[in-house]
Design brief:
Largest sheet of chain B: 5 strands, mixed, barrel
Helix content of chain B: 10-25%
Largest sheet of chain A: 6 strands, mixed
Number of helices of chain B: 4
Distance between the termini of chain B: 27 Å
Oligomer: heterodimer
Radius of gyration of chain B: 23 Å
Chain lengths: ~800, ~260
């Protein structure tokens, strides 16, 4: 398994989710004792297993395992991961452990049913029900009856009703000779209050003679059509422990609800077909340390209700016989298999028609008696050699328990879909050779020293008998990556990735469909469509697309449906980052005071940056001037639209400018620049971002601010302006002289790009629209400081489009 | 009583830790331990949903447990609380385990505050469980016709009654002849014949089995009134419950418990 994992990981360059299984080997064997019970030494024999057909990951099992806490109720084993791990849930009433126990899920309801013999009252049968077998609390008791033996429960859901069948040996019936073989059944047991429609039907129609009873092991098998079979030992005579018995099969074609139930098969005019007559059963005959005498099983082909198999044991040594009928139980084959010195037969048939035959056989090598647990599989009705798998080969007697009945009176095999699930009991010595196909222990075990260890990992625990779960995967085993990651994809584009679905099972894997929880992620239907068949050990590269909408991280789950019965659907998380271009703009623009057009072709220019700060292309569809004084502004360096900006690029390669050419003298000449861009590349939707523009229209001139120590003074004592004649060193002529000029503050209008200004005197501006003729000027400012007059003189030039707005005279 | 309260106060145990309270909790519990609450509204097992009634608790010292889980010191387990418990605090929890997995989930019956004297807490718990066992034994004695001490002289199979059905659960009745040297309840001859199930079937495996020269104390009922259905009933004295046969060393205690009923 690890080898395969490494191969796949390397080949695909992926981190894979390995859904636990025994790859290629197909067979998984698990010791069911939980880790917290590593010190457990009980005789956990006579196991039973129930797999939820609606979800094979949910499995329940039973054994003679007592509640370790002696609460007065018994436990069942619970797995929600397909049998890989188990917990004990104390749910069975009637004592710290139960006697005979069988449990089943119905077909789709998920309800678990059980038939038990309570241990607190001898031969008292309970039929039980629990809606959620994983929840805490006892199962509901639907029926209680004394003088019962070996209740064996089967269940199905049909027409939304849970049908329950409990084969049992009812010693409480009638007078001698008693006909004890019975089936308790309910046609709708899921929710009705006790007894939930359960009633008893005797299926023995003949005299039991001197035996005065039938033998134990009354088993039923049902088909989805409503055809129900039962097999039982019909004892006819008794001499001590030796019983003369027929093996009888009965049938009902309407879920056991026919007018005369289980009378569809007749023999000599009496209900019940005798497959074998007059065979000998030595009751409680020992096989090694295990008693025998009442072991029978039956299974019907889920694809053909006419085909039914039975197996039973008889003779000395106890010998198993396997036979088949293909005509609804009317006629029967001879022995298809004859297994001497074997017991605990169990049959199941998959939807593929494969028959599984589980049994435990006593062998006697030089080292002493051992139990081999065999699973035989046949796809041709046992016409050719079977596939025989030995699941365990363990001593008959060892460790803490050396008494009789080490493995119990039955084991159990089920089929769900194409897979087998079963359970058997065996000594738990951790020896690899005892489990030829491998085994997983939850309890602490050292396979090097062949010792069981307590929870502390050091204290050696005596060997004992444990239940072992096994499954045989006949479908493929799906393996998927831990995720599909697309990284970043630009909105409007389509990203691609490969989703490798691999099959580590031993048979073809059929992928029937793939869906996604997020429409941004989709799997391209293969050219051949679905289903896609993946052979063992192979992978199929599905193309996954990521078509992001909007921007930001996106995630979803890709759900793969397949015929892997253990994992009919698996989810793979898909992640991607959807990105788009992002608009970068210059801030609001304020222009310097600019001379109006009526004076001359004067202008101010400001670079205006329109850039793409994102990681994907950005499309600009328009850049326009608008606003109150839009006519005062123009754009230069503007390319034709649409403009596609790559990440980091600017419109006009940085040469885009806004020009200000005012038409009137005014403090605030406002406008704006609107940039229209594609904000949703998937839909083509656009957005607009705007920047404000503000400029001051003036005549040729200047503006003076007087400060002391950098701080504007409230009043300038005198400001005089003279114009030079003949250049910087010629004569000057007085232009203006102002006394006590106050500080003026003009505040920009909020929400515009206009700023505030301060001055004591301006020439050519709004407050003094007398312009200055182009030339050289001398400005003298007088100030009273500490009672004394002080003055400063500055010179400045005014050209044709000149307005010096920043003359500061500081004292 | 005042003396006891004084002692518990000195030991740092709260007054609720009276033997009566501890006995009551012991009656309801099979798993008793000192545990520190690590995290409220959390669990260690996915089968148990985290609610306000659950907490992850570190088992610091097991005071009473079945053999299979006696060695869980240091394990973090899920506790289904009767009432909220403060994180970081230690208590002596009286519980029953309801789930066994890689961890445990236990349902609280009650708790005691932890005092400074751990040995004293252990003694309280031991005394409570001894009392619980004594009361269970006393109930068996109360149901008994005879309570005797003696020795098995011989055993043999009981001839099979043809009316008994054939079942793998057949008790396989045997008889044992006892030499009785003492009576704690009832009177009878010094040689008594009792009936016992020799079967090691799962339904009988816990019932006492006897062999020659075996000595002990028998708590005997007449005519299988318990456990055995009419189809397998036998007439005679039986000891079917595991407590119905005790080691000889318990004789004084059995006599004392039997004497209380007079």
């Amino acid at each position: 398994m690890r080898f395969l994992t490494n191969i796949l990981t390397t080949a695909l360059g992926l981190s894979l989710i390995l859904i636990p299984t025994s790859a290629f080997a197909q067979v998984k064997v698990v010791n069911m004792i939980p880790n917290s019970l590593s010190a457990e030494t009980q005789r956990d024999s006579e196991p039973n297993v129930a797999v939820n057909p609606a979800n094979p990951m949910r499995i329940a099992a039973s054994a003679f395992t007592p509640d370790p806490g002696s609460s007065g109720s018994g436990p069942i084993f619970v797995s929600t991961d397909g049998g890989n791990t188990w917990v004990l849930n104390v749910v069975l009433p009637g004592g710290n452990k139960t006697g005979d126990t069988s449990i089943r899920f119905a077909g789709t309801s998920g309800v678990l049913y059980g038939g038990i013999l309570r241990s607190d009252s001898f031969l008292r049968m309970n039929i039980l029900r629990k809606a959620d077998f994983t929840s805490l609390g006892l199962m509901d008791v639907l029926l209680t009856r004394d003088n019962e033996d070996q209740p064996w429960l089967e269940a199905a859901t049909a027409v939304a009703q849970d049908r329950v069948f409990v084969g049992n040996n009812n010693f409480g019936v009638g007078s001698s000779p008693r006909r004890t073989a019975s089936v308790d059944l309910s046609q709708n047991a899921a929710t009705a209050p006790a007894p939930a429609g359960l009633s008893t039907t005797a299926i023995e129609a003949r005299s039991t003679g001197t035996a005065n009873q039938d033998g134990p092991a009354i088993r039923t098998a049902h088909h989805s059509s409503g055809r129900v079979y039962a097999v039982f030992y019909a004892w006819t005579a008794s001499s001590g422990s030796t019983k003369t018995s027929d093996i009888v099969v009965v049938r009902d074609d309407n879920w056991g609800a026919s007018a005369t139930p289980f009378a569809a098969l007749t023999d000599g005019g009496v209900a019940g077909r005798r497959v074998v007559t007059g065979t000998t059963v030595v009751f409680n005959q020992m096989l090694g340390n295990q008693r025998t005498g009442g072991q029978a099983t039956i299974a019907v082909d889920p694809s053909n209700s006419s085909t039914v198999y039975i197996a039973w044991g008889d003779g000395t040594p106890f010998t198993l016989h396997l036979r088949r009928s293909t005509d609804q139980g009317v006629t029967w084959s001879g022995d298809l298999r004859t297994i001497t010195s074997a017991t605990n037969p169990a049959l199941a048939i998959t939807t593929a028609g494969k028959v599984g035959f589980l049994y435990q056989r006593l062998v006697t090598p030089s080292g002493g008696n051992r139990w081999e647990t065999h699973l035989e599989q046949s796809t041709d009705g046992f016409a050719s050699a079977v596939t025989d798998t030995i699941l365990a080969n363990v001593p008959d007697s060892i460790g803490s328990y050396s008494g009789p009945n080490p493995i119990g009176d039955y084991s159990n095999l089920m089929a769900v879909g194409k897979n087998f699930y079963g359970v058997f009991s065996a000594f738990n010595t951790p020896v690899n050779a005892n489990f030829p196909l491998g085994v997983t222990y939850q309890r602490n075990a050292n396979f090097g020293t062949n010792q069981l260890l307590a929870l502390n990992g050091t204290t050696v625990v005596a060997d004992s008998i444990d239940p072992f779960f096994f499954s045989v995967s006949e479908s493929g085993n799906i393996v998927v990556p831990s995720g599909v990651a697309f990284g970043t994809a630009c909105a409007g584009s389509i990203g691609h990735a490969t989703l490798n679905v691999c099959n580590t099972g031993g048979a073809d894997l059929k992928v029937t469909g793939i869906s996604s929880s997020n429409p941004a992620f989709a799997v391209t239907t293969p050219s051949g469509g679905f289903p896609v068949v993946i052979h063992p050990g192979a992978c199929f590269p599905f193309d996954v697309t990521f078509t992001p909408s909007g921007t930001g991280p996106q995630s979803g789950t890709i759900t793969i449906s397949s015929d892997d019965a253990a994992h009919p659907t698996v989810g793979v998380p898909a992640t991607g980052q959807s990105a788009a271009g992002s608009l970068g703009l210059s801030p609001n623009q304020q222009f310097p005071p600019t001379v109006i057009q009526s004076v001359g072709p004067c202008r101010s220019s400001r670079p205006f940056v329109v850039s793409n700060t994102g990681t994907c292309d950005l499309t600009i569809t328009n850049i326009a001037i608008g606003g109150v004084n839009a006519g005062d502004y123009t754009l230069s360096g503007l390319p034709a639209f649409p403009i596609t900006l790559q990440p980091g690029h600017q419109v006009g390669s940085g040469d885009l400018n806004v020009l200000f050419e005012p038409k009137a003298v005014a403090r605030e000449r406002t406008a704006n620049v609107s940039v229209t861009f594609v904000s949703n590349p998937t839909s083509g939707a656009t957005s607009v971002q705007t920047r404000e523009l503000c400029g001051e229209g003036v005549l040729t001139g200047a503006r003076v601010l007087v400060t002391q120590g950098g701080v504007p003074v409230p009043v300038a004592h005198e400001i005089s302006l003279r114009r030079y004649w003949g250049g910087w060193f010629g004569f000057s002529k007085k232009v203006e002289e102002v006394d006590n000029a106050p500080l003026q503050t003009v505040t920009g209008t909020p929400g515009t790009a206009c700023g505030s200004i301060q001055f004591h005197r301006e020439y050519g501006g709004v407050s003094n629209q007398k312009s200055l003729t182009p030339g050289v000027y001398k400005l003298k400012v007088e100030l009273k400081i500490a009672g004394k007059e002080v003055s400063k003189t500055v010179r400045f030039n005014v050209d044709t489009c000149g307005f010096n707005g920043t003359i500061v005279v500081d004292f | 009583m005042y003396c006891l309260l004084l002692i518990t106060a000195l030991l740092g145990l709260p007054q609720q830790s009276t033997p009566t309270n501890v006995n009551r909790l012991a009656d309801l519990s099979s798993f008793v331990f000192r545990g520190r609450v690590l995290k409220s509204e959390a669990t260690t097992m996915p089968q148990v949903e985290a609610t306000k009634q659950t907490a992850v608790v570190l088992v610091e010292e097991v005071h009473r447990a079945a053999d299979a889980i006696r060695n869980v010191n240091g394990m973090q387990i899920t506790l289904i609380l009767r009432q909220r418990a403060a994180e970081g605090r230690s208590y002596i929890f009286f519980t029953n385990v309801v789930l066994y997995g890689s961890s445990l989930a236990a349902r609280e019956s009650g708790r005691l505050s932890v005092g400074r004297n751990s040995d004293y807490a252990q003694r309280l718990v031991n005394a409570a469980f001894d009392s619980k066992e004594d009361r269970a034994l006393q109930q068996r004695i109360a149901r008994a016709t005879l309570v005797v001490a003696g020795k098995v002289l011989r055993t043999e199979p009981l001839p099979r009654d043809p009316r008994w059905p054939e079942s793998e659960h057949d008790p396989q009745w045997w008889t044992a002849v006892l030499h009785v040297d003492s009576f704690a309840k009832g009177q009878g001859p010094t040689e008594l014949t009792i009936i016992f199930p020799s079967s090691k079937d799962e339904l009988w495996i816990d019932a006492p089995k006897f062999k020659p020269d075996q000595e002990g104390v028998w708590i005997l009922q007449r005519d299988t009134k318990e456990k055995v259905p009419p189809v397998y009933a036998v007439r005679g004295l039986t000891a079917l419950d595991p407590r119905d046969f005790q080691p000889r060393e318990t004789w004084d205690k059995v006599r004392r418990l039997a004497g209380r009923q007079r």
